[in-house]
Amino acid sequence: MASKKREIIKLKSTESKEMYWTTKNKQNTTGRIELRKYDKSLRRHVIFKEAK
């Protein structure tokens, strides 16, 4: 039986309450991730950090 390598994570904006749901490979990326994504409420790109 194969083990689950991907987990669903929540990315939260650093400047507003906007959130994204995505998946990551927890075997290759053990730390928390930060992505620069578009924030719809602010209408610009901001940094989104992984929240648990």
Describe the structure.
The chain is mainly β. It has no helices and four strands. The chain has a four-stranded antiparallel sheet, with no helix packed on it.
Q: Characteristics of this structure?
A:
52 residues, 4 strands, mainly beta, Rubrerythrin, domain 2, single chain
Note the beta-strand portion: over 45%
The structural domain count equals 1
How far apart are the first and last residues' alpha carbons, in Å?
Answer: 27 Å
CATH H-tier superfamily: Ribosomal protein L33
Main β-sheet description: 4 strands, antiparallel
Number of helices: 0
Radius of gyration: 13 Å
The averaged pLDDT comes out at 93
Can you write the helix and strand succession as a string? EEEE
Poorly predicted regions: none
- Stated plainly, the CATH topology is called Rubrerythrin, domain 2
Helix/strand class: mainly beta
Second rung of CATH, namely the architecture: Single Sheet
What is the overall silhouette?
Answer: elongated
Question: How do the strands line up in the largest sheet?
Answer: 2-1-4-3
Q: What's the CATH first level? A: Mainly Beta
- Give the % helix: under 10%
Q: What's the number of extended β-strand segments?
A: 4
Summarize the structure.
This protein has 52 residues and is mainly beta. Helix content is 0%, strand content 56%.
How are the SSEs ordered, and which strands pair?
Blueprint: E1 6-13, E2 19-25, E3 34-39, E4 44-51
Antiparallel strand pairs: 1-2, 1-4, 3-4
